[in-house]
Every structure is written in structure tokens, then in C-alpha cells.
Specification:
This protein has 576 residues and is α+β, with helices and mostly antiparallel strands. It has 21 helices and 16 strands.
Length: 576
């Protein structure tokens, strides 16, 4: 794998060969540095006063790589030796860069201290960079740091363009940047773009991240995504890193993305990032949920600003266009709020509130006089309380809100007494045999006048090219914690059966652009209790409970056939 760093002479920067002073590597020598996984070499393809280029070439020994592999590396025999690690820039290159240019990364240069302290014209090239999130993610990570980004997706096979693009990009960065900062940007962001590390992550990874991110990470708009990916989504390490960054001030702490809301990622992992095709999960709000262009709706610049303020940044607009694209998680939240207003609900409970994004949107509208949020996760509720700023919330607003812990498969009197209940991206996290218990609690015991349910439309998943590999065959799903994802027919069948058992009528609405072939990315069911519904309907539903549970078990086998088993247990909603 190869990395080149070039500079040119200018009136202010002096001769280009000063690059050798800053890197502490002489332009006339080829230097070798042994690594646990191979050999790194530094040499200068060109070194004149006008232009100078330093190259870092890393040759990976597959046998040595196997001996130093981390616990999460592939353990099947062939995969240890046949992979992209020797050719594509990754955490291997980042480690080598950190070792070879250790002094340069600190910004020290005893021979020319004035050079190290000032920006210089730099061009950095990476011919093969794995990028889980594509060209758009590369721009989102580097452009806020002052780089002009040129990124081109590498086709799977140039001879067969119909095969589409690979997950690799050719990346060129240009800008007036201090060399130490440029090296630290690469050290952190190379493994972030690859979303993988070749070694076991220990506690000192947080120290490495904070040191390398000094001066830029805490103010980066994607700091939540960067932190989660760099630390391999290790919750304990993330919390430590967020706390370290939060020492810079409350505004930084509250801008950090908590690792609770699910996101859609090309490897099927969770972050927010919501979502990462757009990677807009959630970045920060939850990483914005990635969705193809067809799943977005254009909005005005003011609406885009409102979406960013609400914690889910809008995608950048196409060149020459004033429209911007709204991530799916924002469209979903806005659709739910609009339905609640249309129904005339004044009291609402968010069942599975996660980090409180829907609750926050409801609080912003005085028409909702009483709002509750419940979640099975105490950590999610603590994050929701912090993001909602409960300790600083005005008394009148605070009086409208209640947050409490609760499980949706167990009857709880606190769930009752609301005009409407919302299950936004919740049911797919419940094991199918447990769905009848949730139905009984929500529709039978709590029995609000209205229930709004949203869930992914699995038919739309064909629009996400990377999803065919998420679970290794069978029906690919958007998140590894999803117990199922339904087609429109399956969702309609379930919702109609629930409505019939518990005395509701139901209508279905699309969320996001309604694709003429596969439907919308999210499907919504709006339940309203029938005027003539009585307690007899609940009694009848209870009498048929066993039959429903048996049917659910059969449905579970049908829905999950061929998919990979995931960890058992409920997960709170997630805006992604």
C-alpha cells in the first residue's frame, strides 16, 4: 500500500525539499522500518527545490500479519492470507505512519522550528482506500479540516462497468495545512474510513485518539462517528473518549453522538451513524441514516438548518443545486409528528424513546400538552435526559414531560391514559414470538385512541447495494439487531390482524419517496380505535392469544429463514 505527500515551493514556504526536515527523513536515502506485520519504506520519488514528494510504501507479510492479528480478525484459514490488507490503505498504514513519522506528528523540528509551526501547501494521495460510506463520507470527514477533496470510486472491474463500484476510492487531498496536523488527520481517519482495525483495541486507544485529535476532533462535525469507528464501537472506550472530549465544555458534550441509536452501515454495524450511505447513521445527532438519493426529499435551506439543529444533518446538495437532501430518520420523525397533529392528539407516549429525538420534536410543539418517553435501557434514558437538558429546562416545559424505564412486553399502568402511542422503529427489535405480548400490552391494556407504528420496508433494501452481505445470505437486514424486516404485504397482514383483534381500524402510509417498484424505505401504520370497540374485543383478543403466539412463531421461522442469528433481547428504538 502506498501513501505520497507532496509540496511545492512558494514565497512563504521556501524550497520544497524542506519537507525532508519536517518528516525527519533525508530525501537522498531510502529508509526501512520493521513492523510486526511487514516492512515500511520511506523514499522520495522527486526532490527538487520546486517540488518534493515523500512516499511511504508498506509491504505486508501475510504470515506476520496472521501472527499479529486481533481477536476480531477473520479466523477462517484462507481469509487470514487472502484479503485486501497488503494493497489497500487501512489501520496497517495508519500504524506504520504513526511509527515512521512519530516525531513529525508532534510538530517538532529542531532544525527548522518555524516551518513546523506554519501551514504549507500539501498534496496527499492514496490510490486505494477502503471507504465504508463511499466518496460522500470521505468528503464529510476531510473537508471540515480544510482539505480540498478529490475522491473517485474504484469500479469492481473496469472491463465490466455494469458490476458497479467497489468500496474502494482513490483519494487526493490538497490544502494549506500544517504537516503535523495532516499526519494526525490520516492517522485517525484511515481506520475510520475502513471501519476496521487489525489489532486488539486496548484502553490506550482513547489516549491515542485524544492526542492525535488535539485541536480538531472536538470541533469536527462528525466527531461522534469518528470516535465510534476509531474505537471499534467498544462502548466502554467510547464513553471514556466522550468524557475526555467533554472536558472542553458542555457544548461539546451535548454535541457528541451517543452510541445508542442505530445506524445503517455498509458492513451492517451499528453506530448512528444513520445511519452511512449518506452516512446520512446518524452523524451526530445519530449518525444520519444512509439512504440512496431516491429516498430523500429536497427541502429548503432553512428546513435543512432545522434538521441539523434537531440532531440529524442534512446531506449536501448536488453541485449547482440549492436543494439539500433530508436523511430518512428526519423524514420519519417529521412524518410521525405530522400524523399526530393530524389526529388531534394532545397527549403522546413514545414507546422505545431511545435518546429522545422524537420526544424533543414533540416538546418543541406546544400543541402536545403531555409527553412521555419510555425505554428499557436506563443508559438511553440518561442520554435522553442530558440531550433534552432536563436540568436546565423551564418549569412549564418540564411539567409536560415524563421519562421512565419500562419494558413493552409487560403490562405497565404508566403506558395508559394517552391519546396516542408511538412505536417508531421498535417492533423489528422484538423477537417474533414476543410480538403478541407487545400487542397485548399496547393495544389491549394501554389501549390509546391512536397508535403509530413505523418499521423498515425490506423490499426497499435492494436500493442499498451493500446490504446483500450484511448477514451473509438470506434476507439482508439494515441492522444486526433487527429480528426481522417485513415486506409491505407482511406488515399489512400483521397490522390488519392486530387491528381486528383489538378493535382498531388501520391505514398505511409511506415514509420517504414511494418507489414505484419496491415502495418506500419506511412503512407506517396508523391505528385508530373503532367507535364501537368495547372491552369484549379485548376479551376476545385475550382468548385467542395462544393462537396468535403460535402464528407468530410460524411467521418468525418464515421471516428469519436463512438469516444469521443475532443476540437475543429487546433493543430500544433508534431514529435510524
Amino acid at each position: 500500500m502506498l501513501l505520497t505527500i507532496s509540496t511545492v515551493s512558494s514565497v512563504t514556504s521556501g524550497p520544497a525539499t524542506d519537507l525532508g526536515f519536517l518528516l525527519h527523513k533525508h530525501p537522498e536515502r531510502v529508509q526501512e522500518f520493521g513492523q510486526s506485520f511487514g516492512t515500511a519504506r520511506v523514499f522520495y520519488p522527486e526532490a527538487t527545490e520546486r517540488r518534493c514528494t515523500a512516499a511511504l510504501l508498506l509491504e505486508v507479510d501475510p504470515v506476520r500479519l496472521v501472527r499479529s492479528r486481533g481477536k476480531t480478525s477473520p479466523d477462517f484459514s484462507l481469509g487470514q492470507y487472502v484479503n485486501d490488507r497488503p494493497y489497500a490503505a487501512s489501520s496497517l498504514l495508519a500504524v506504520a505512519l504513526g511509527d515512521v513519522f512519530r516525531t513529525a506528528r508532534t510538530g517538532r523540528c529542531n532544525a527548522r522550528p518555524e516551518l513546523a509551526a506554519h501551514p504549507m501547501p500539501l498534496e496527499i494521495c492514496l490510490p486505494a482506500l477502503p471507504c465504508r460510506g463511499g466518496v460522500a463520507l470521505a468528503r464529510r470527514l476531510f473537508e471540515p479540516l480544510g482539505w480540498e477533496v478529490e475522491a473517485t470510486a474504484v469500479p469492481l472491474d473496469e472491463g465490466f462497468p455494469e458490476w458497479g463500484e467497489s468500496r474502494y476510492v482513490r483519494l487526493s487531498l490538497r490544502g494549506e495545512v500544517r504537516l503535523a496536523d495532516a499526519l494526525n488527520h490520516l492517522y485517525v481517519l484511515l481506520p475510520v474510513l475502513d471501519d476496521a482495525k487489525h489489532y486488539w483495541l486496548a484502553g490506550d486507544e482513547v489516549d491515542k485518539l485524544v492526542r492525535a485529535g488535539e485541536g480538531w476532533l472536538a470541533v469536527h462535525p462528525e466527531k461522534g462517528l469518528i470516535t465510534r469507528r476509531y474505537l471499534g464501537r467498544r462502548r466502554a472506550l467510547e464513553r471514556t473518549a466522550f468524557a475526555r472530549l467533554a472536558e472542553l465544555g458542555d457544548d461539546v458534550e451535548e454535541a457528541l453522538e451517543p452510541p445508542l441509536d442505530e445506524e445503517l452501515t455498509p458492513d451492517g454495524g451499528a453506530g448512528g451513524e444513520a445511519g452511512e450511505l449518506a452516512e446520512s447513521a446518524p452523524a451526530s445527532g445519530p449518525e444520519p441514516e444512509p439512504v440512496p438519493a431516491s429516498a430523500h426529499e429536497p427541502v429548503s435551506a432553512s428546513a435543512a438548518f432545522a434538521a441539523v439543529a434537531d440532531g440529524a444533518p442534512a446531506e449536501g446538495a448536488a453541485a449547482g443545486s440549492e436543494d439539500v437532501r433530508v436523511p430518512l430518520n428526519v423524514l420519519r420523525r417529521e412524518a410521525v409528528v405530522a400524523v399526530l397533529e393530524e389526529l388531534g392528539a394532545r397527549t403522546v407516549i413514545d414507546l422505545g424513546c431511545g435518546s429522545g429525538q422524537l420526544v424533543s420534536a414533540l416538546l418543541a410543539r406546544p400543541v402536545f400538552a403531555r409527553i412521555a418517553g419510555t425505554d428499557v435501557s436506563t443508559q438511553a434514558l440518561a442520554i435522553a435526559a442530558r440531550k433534552l437538558k432536563l436540568d436546565r429546562m423551564p418549569d412549564a416545559k418540564r411539567a409536560r414531560l415524563e421519562l421512565f424505564q419500562g419494558a413493552l412486553t409487560y403490562a405497565d399502568p404508566r403506558f395508559a391514559g394517552y391519546d396516542a402511542a408511538v412505536l417508531m422503529e421498535v417492533i423489528e427489535h422484538v423477537d417474533p414470538p414476543r410480538l403478541p405480548a407487545l400487542e397485548r400490552v399496547v393495544f389491549g391494556t394501554a389501549k390509546p385512541a391512536h397508535v403509530v407504528v413505523t418499521t423498515p420496508n425490506v423490499e426497499y433494501n435492494v436500493r442499498y447495494d451493500f446490504l446483500d452481505s450484511v448477514h451473509g445470505g438470506g434476507r439482508a437486514m439494515r441492522h444486526p439487531d433487527h429480528r426481522f424486516e417485513w415486506t409491505r404485504a407482511e406488515f399489512a397482514s400483521w397490522a390488519s390482524a392486530v387491528a381486528g383483534r383489538y378493535g382498531y381500524h388501520v391505514e398505511f402510509r409511506p415514509v420517504g419517496e414511494d418507489d414505484p417498484e419496491v415502495g418506500p424505505p419506511t412503512q407506517m401504520a396508523v391505528f385508530s380505535v373503532k367507535a364501537d370497540a368495547t372491552a369484549d374485543s379485548v376479551k376476545d383478543a385475550t382468548a385467542t392469544e395462544n393462537a396468535a403466539e403460535n402464528a407468530a412463531e410460524n411467521a418468525a421461522r418464515d421471516v428469519t429463514e436463512g438469516t444469521t442469528a443475532v443476540v437475543t433481547g429487546e433493543r430500544s428504538e433508534g431514529d435510524g
